[in-house]
Amino acid sequence: METHEARIKRMTMRSWRRGTKEMDLILGPYADAYIAQMDEDALRLYDGLLEENDQDLLAMILGQQEKPQHFAKLLADVEKFARGRLAKA
What we know:
Blueprint: H1 4-16, H2 21-34, H3 40-50, H4 54-61, H5 72-88
């Protein structure tokens, strides 16, 4: 069975090593900032998000594709975080 620490490490690594650089730069910093404070339900949801296709995720974050209802709030949070980081750059 995966320990909590191993799960956080796996999910953080998966956030940074997505397959597309765009999603690495969106999900990696988000995971660094928030994953350690997530409760079990949030971790389960985020883990599910990590299973999604990068092209679909990017289209959802950019508003080019509809967000699935179960990911809508999480994707909105990720989008807000990413836009905030861009504004600081």
